[in-house]
Amino acid sequence: MSGNGAAKDPVLVVVQLTGGNDFMNTLVPYTEGAYYDARPLVRVAEDEVLPINDTLGFNPNASRLKELYDAGNVAVVQGIGYPNSSRSHFRGMDIWHTCEPDRISTEGWVAKVIDRLDPEGENPLTAVNIGRGLPRALAAPGVTATSVGDLDNYGLMTGVEVEEERERDLEIFKRMYTPAVGAGLVQDYLSQTGRGSLAGAEILAKVPGQYSSSVEYGANPIAKALHDVARIHTAGVGTRVFYTSHPGYDTHSHQPPVHPRLLQEVSGALADFMQDLREHDAAEEVTILVFTEFGRRMKDNGSGTDHGSGGGAFIVGDLVEGGLYAEYPSVDPSDWLHGEDLKHTIDFRGIYGTILEQWMGIAPHEIVGGEFEQIRPYSRTLVA
Q1: Regarding the domain delimited by 11-368, which CATH topology (the fold level of the hierarchy) does it fall under?
Q2: How many Å apart are CA 234 and CA 245, to the nearest integer?
Q3: Looking at beta carbons, which pairs linking 362-365 to residues 24 or more positions away fall under 8 Å?
Q4: Is the pTM of this model over 0.85?
Q5: What integer pLDDT is reported at residue 85 of this predicted model?
Q6: Are strands 50-51 and 57-58 parallel, antiparallel or unpaired?
C-alpha cells in the first residue's frame, strides 16, 4: 500500500505515441520566425494556435489537452530526449523501452517496475498492456505481463483460445525483436513468460459487467484503449501499470491531414479518460505519461517531416502541478543539432526517474541506469 497510509496505491498509465510525434507542431513556437521559415507547408498558423503564453501555444486540434493544461492537470516536458539520439524507429523505441542507449538490453524498464511491485508474480494483472503483442518495455525473463487485445471478448474466450492469443502475441514479439537482439535472447524470454495468463483472463472476464459510465469515448483505437484501462482500473483488480499505444505518428508525408487527426484523437481520449476516472472517484491515484520515440526535424520536406531528436512528453493527472518543465529547444538555425534538429534539453531517463521515485515510490537508479535530472511535476503524491 502507499507509504502515507492512504487507501489507494499509485497507478501509472503509459501512452506511447508510436512513430515520432512532431512536438513542434503540438506545442507551437508561434512567435518564432525561424519556425515559419523552416516549414512553409507543415506549419500551424499563428492565428490558429491556442496560446498558453507569449511564445508557445497548443495546436488547435489538441484543444481538449489544452483544457486539461489550463485546469492545471498537464505537465509539459519540453525538449525530452537523450544524447546521440537514434533516428531509427526500432532502435529509438528500444532505447526508450530499456533505458539503454549504448547496448542491447534484455529487460524492459516497466518489467523491472513489475518485478519491484510484485516480486513473487502473485498477480498476473500487476501490469496490463492494451493492444496486440507485448511491448519491449514490459518484457523481461521471469516477469509476467498480460496483453489484452479486446477486453469485451477476452473474458468470453475459452482457456484454449486465451492460450492461442497469448501465443500469437508472443509470436508478434518474436518477429519484432529477433532481428535486433538475436534469436537466443528472444527464445530465453519466451520460455519464461506468459505464466498466469489464464488466471488473468478469468479475472478480466468479470470486468465489463462491473462498469458503467456516462462518458462517451471517441470511435478510435486510443479512445477504446483508454476506455479499457478505465474499466480495468475501476474494477480494482490490482493493476499498477497500464501500457498502450497510439500509432501513426511517422508523418514523412501527408502530415497536414494526418497529424491533426491524431492530436484530436489522443487529446480527446485523454480528456474523456480523466472525466471517466473522476466520475468513478478513481482519478487521484492515476498519473499518465505520454511519450514518443523522437521528435521531427526542423524543416519540412514538402509533405511532412522527417525523423529528428528533441521532442516532448506529457504527464497528466489530478495531482499534477501543471505547467512547462525543462526548456523548449532553441529554434534558431545556429543552434540546430546537425544543422537540422532540435537539441534535447532533458534526459528521458530523468522523467522516468521522476515518476518512479516521486509517484510510484520506487528507487529509480537501477531501473533507469543511473542518476538523471528530475523535475517536480506533482502538487502531492500518495507515497511518503
Answers
A1: Alkaline Phosphatase, subunit A (3.40.720)
A2: 20
A3: 362/113, 362/116, 362/117
A4: yes
A5: 85
A6: antiparallel
